[in-house]
Amino acid sequence: MKAARAVRNEPREELLTPDEVAVLLKVTVRTVERWQQEGLLPFLRLGHAVRFHWPAVVEHLTANFTVVRGVPVAAPLATKPSIQTPTPCGGPPARTITKGGRP
User: Fold this and answer.
1) How far apart are CA 23 and CA 25, in angstroms?
2) If we measure between CA atoms, which residue out of 75, 45, 51 comes closest to residue 62?
3) pLDDT tens string 31-80
């Protein structure tokens, strides 16, 4: 009986709600929503409903995150974020502004 229960609780290839993804990732629903908004989790929008395809989530997290000293770190976020100002046509090259506002 225990084996049947374990199989039933394993994520299958179906669409999951943010609540279900939060349980599987052991984070809060708010964290799942924030990661979704920041583009850290792939998702589908079906009308007003948001769903996650679990194999795609696992593949994305595996490809984009590394483990450093036992703590997961997002590879793209490991560097200091910067914003590039647009270059006007024929003008000088764009300058990079770091998050603190200084070049």
Assistant:
1) 6
2) 75
3) 999 999 998 999 999 899 999 999 999 999 888 887 666 555 555 544 44
Dist. CA 69–CA 10, nearest whole Å: 28
Q: What pTM value is reported for the model?
A: 0.54
Distance between CA atoms of residues 21 and 16, nearest Å? 6
Cα atoms found within 13 Å of the Cα of residue 6, Cβ hemisphere only: 3
Spatial separation of the C-alpha atoms in residues 26 and 69, rounded to whole Å: 19
Q: How far apart are CA 38 and CA 59, in angstroms?
A: 17
- Structural domains in the chain, sorted by start: 2-78 (1.10.10)
Distance CA 36, CA 17 (A): 12
Task: Give the integer Cα–Cα distance in Å for 43 and 37.
Answer: 10
